[in-house]
Design brief:
The chain is α/β, with parallel strands linked by helices and 515 residues long. It is 32% helix and 21% strand. It binds ligand BES, manganese (II) ion and zinc ion. The site of ligand BES has 16 residues, from helix 11.
């Protein structure tokens, strides 16, 4: 990954390919943001005017490149838009900094080293710029060297996805000897590395990432970071009675897995459980998706990838909380052995489910994992899933929906997401939608009314939560996979949605600020 340092050196003397400065939208044109004073002086205080002449406005994500002033070792200045300038006496908010740093890092793909001279009011801002730069410098190149590295997952040297990501970032004005700054930057580095790991998993093609290979990657990385990793294979799942996971995996040549990752801290007093939907490919099964709806369905394990990344990040950050991650892994395929619409599954909880549509598979694997998580009686359960197209229709491609059995918990998650720069919105679980899932044959059907499909799915999951446990469900079907162009620190493809929210929840729980 991109290397990161804090620097106190003078901008002019730094050897780098570029110096990144911030430019904001002021009332009368672009204004140069704090942090770039020395650069501006070297242009005789005319940087804002030059930028305006070049057409820059300071709008979010805008990138303007210009030759560096004389006397600077770095040849180029990159001015990145921060959006509206803050009110007098206010600072730039963390998300503006994160996005600007991400846009700059993307614009610098191919460069070796860049110095970031963005406005840092405190240690948290340094963390935000670091995070934005490291997330923006992501690229998925494992399959770009004529297939040679496909098996190892290692990046290729030559035939990349365009240019190589920016290799080195130095943050100017970052107080390297200040504990808070150091901690913020170290947190950003660990978090970004794990989040980028989640993106890699989502981007991996489904012929290489199946339930067994995902489980073995989790085993390797989990052990490396001191986690306890338990994997239930198809035999163990059969013995344990995990009818939901087995039912979804029944049509695939690649059998399902349930992975449990445990991070424990000796001083922890709280226990969080994270549960992720891990459909390594969703063809729809016998209720096959039509062409045009399955090209991106390798992303259907993004919930499990987020949970995996968040548990490893919690371990790397040494958070004082116990976190258990559950990855419900299966491939949803049609075949002679596949579950049929009309079949009844005996779920791990003991309930029976009539499968009316095999494409509503996520709730089936999650139901078993949610019940398994409930058996340990954690203080709270949060599941993450690319669960419904309906949630995408409701909220668009950048916002995840939050449903919960506890209003205060739902609000806390919404606020945590907001804090880390993830867009989310609270959604209801209307009781009247439950009867749409009544089945004449089984305890419940896996489909209900079409209207409010995302909420119906949430109501289904609620049935598999142990008595008295706070639970929330994040439907990340929209933001998990970016089908449009890259923006800010978000690349095309896998985005790592929900990782930062989960890690923030673990941090808040560790600090005693949640529940
Ligand atoms: N994995 C899909 C949901 C999805 C759709 C995720 C688009 C990302 C982008 C899920 O398994 C699914 O197929 N849901 C169905 C449910 C329906 C059959 C009740 C849907 O949303 O159409
Ligand atoms: Mn489906
Ligand atoms: Zn699915």
């Amino acid at each position: 990954m991109t290397a990161l340092t804090l620097s106190t050196a003078a901008a002019a003397g730094l050897r780098a390919d570029a110096i990144v400065v911030g430019v904001a939208k002021g009332a009368e044109g672009p204004v140069v943001a704090p942090g770039a004073e020395a650069v501006d002086q070297a242009y005789d205080g005319r940087l804002a005017a030059v930028l305006e002449t070049l057409g820059a406005s300071g709008a979010e994500g805008e990138v303007t490149k210009l030759p560096a002033p004389s006397g600077f070792k770095a040849p180029v200045v990159v001015a990145v838009g921060l959006g509206a300038a803050p009110e007098k006496d206010e600072d730039y908010d963390a998300e503006s900094l994160r996005r600007a740093a991400g846009s700059a890092a993307r614009a610098l793909a191919g460069a070796k080293k860049a110095v970031f001279a963005l406005p840092l009011a405190d240690a948290a801002d340094a963390g935000a710029v670091a995070e934005g730069a490291l997330l923006g410098a992501y690229s998925f190149d494992a399959y770009k060297d004529n297939g040679k590295s496909a098996k190892t997952g290692k990046g290729a040297k030559n035939a990349r996805n365009g240019k190589a990501p920016l290799a080195e970032v130095a943050l100017l004005g970052g107080k390297p000897r200040d504990k808070a700054y150091k901690a913020a930057v170290e947190r950003a580095a660990a978090l970004a590395e794990e989040l980028n790991r989640a993106r890699d998993l989502v981007n991996m093609p489904p012929n290489d990432l199946n339930p067994a290979s995902f489980a073995s990657l989790a085993q390797t990385a989990g052990k490396e970071h001191g986690l306890k990793v338990q994997v239930l294979d198809e035999k163990a799942l059969t013995k344990g009675g995990y009818g939901g996971i087995l039912g979804v995996g029944a049509g695939s040549e690649a059998p399902p897995r349930l992975v449990k990752l445990s991070y424990t801290h000796s001083k922890a007093s709280k226990h969080l459980a994270f549960v992720g939907k891990g459909i390594t490919y969703d063809s729809g099964g016998i209720s096959l998706k039509p062409a045009g709806h399955n090209e991106t369905m390798k992303c259907d394990m993004a919930g499990a990838a987020a949970v995996f990344a968040a548990v490893v990040a919690a371990a790397r950050l040494g958070l004082e909380v116990n976190v258990t991650g559950w990855l419900a892994l299966a491939e949803n395929m049609p075949s002679g052995s596949a579950t049929r619409p009309g079949d009844v599954l005996h779920m791990y909880s003991g309930k029976t489910v009539e499968v009316l549509n095999t494409d509503a598979e996520g709730r089936l694997v999650l139901a078993d994992a949610l019940w398994a998580a409930s058996e340990e009686e954690p203080d709270a359960i949060v599941d993450v899933a690319t669960l419904t197209g309906a949630m995408m229709l409701a909220l668009g491609a950048r916002t995840f929906g939050i449903m919960a059995n506890d209003d205060a918990f739902r609000t806390a998650i919404h606020e945590a997401a907001d804090e880390v720069g993830e867009e989310s919105w609270p959604m209801p679980l209307p009781e009247h939608l439950r009867k749409g899932m009544d089945s004449p044959t089984a305890d419940i059907a896996n489909m209900g009314e079409r209207m409010g499909g995302g909420l119906v799915a949430g109501l289904f999951l609620r049935e598999f939560i142990g008595e008295g446990i706070a639970w929330a469900h994040l439907d990340i079907a929209g933001p998990a996979y970016n089908e449009q162009g890259a923006f800010g620190y978000t690349p095309k493809g896998g985005t790592g949605s929900a990782v930062r929210t989960l890690v923030r929840l673990a941090e808040l729980t560790a600090a005693g600020d949640l529940g």
